[in-house]
Amino acid sequence: MSWRAAFVVLALVACGRPAAPPGRPVRASITRTGNTIVVRAIPGSGTQINALLPPLLEFPWGRTERLLSSCLTADSAYFLTPPEVTLPGDTPLAGALLRASICDSGAAVCRVVTVPL
Amino acid sequence: MSRTLLAAASLVLLQVLTPSRPHAPKAPPWNNTSWLNADQSLTLESLRGRVVLLNFWTFTCYNCTNTVPALVDFDARFRERGLTVIGMHDPEFPPSGGEHDKKNVQSALVRHGIKYPNAQDNDHATWNLYGIRAWPSFVLIDRKGNIRYEGAGEFHVADRWYQQWDTRIQELLVE
User: Fold this and answer.
1) Domain tally, chain B
2) What is the mean pLDDT of chain B?
3) What's the pTM?
4) In this structure, which of A24, B5, B61, B90 has its CB flanked by the most CB atoms within 10 Å?
């Protein structure tokens, strides 16, 4: 096994990856804990989230928040774990959009997906 | 009767398998005004008589930048023979992502050794005009201004998709 492949395997083991939802390129996961809300972008089966253009959470009043993760592929191009952002617990999520650049490893193409929260 | 059916079926199969379009549609003219690596705006009309390979890309798309060496190679090998490679730079995200900034596009061209012309397509007008859906995408236009081949997806120098595009380009160059 090359060092590059070993790195990817190690990173996958270390970072983990939640089960991909079938049929959807990406979905938003919302977790409320105490005084915070954590929003994560979960990639669908066979897709990767572009780390060169991290997902954005867009609020209807104009504010944007970037979702990030420190677990990246060896080439830093894709997230190995779902990128996330932590928000104040009283942030209204109504009307917010998750915008993500999703790359399909099979067809080697990327597209933009927007998901309402 | 069965021979006639077989002949008809063969004809249908041939149509499906023939990659080049028998009635190629006219390529719609683009109107991009912001260009890099070009002294002036390039129009479809001004390129009549040349084969044109349009590459819809953005510098934040890894699949796109991985394909750039193959496009640089096509440009180096075929420019003198009549090929013009054009990068249509189409941002994925709203302007806050930095993809709309001409300086960032210019930096990307230098970083990736791109010498062929690039147009900024920040409003996706040309993207929509050509019905593009994904990054990177490719449209190959013949010397008469007809769309002859379209496709999407990363490829690399010497892989089978590169060979496919290479064959297509050379086919149109000798017409």
Assistant:
1) 1
2) 89
3) 0.80
4) B61
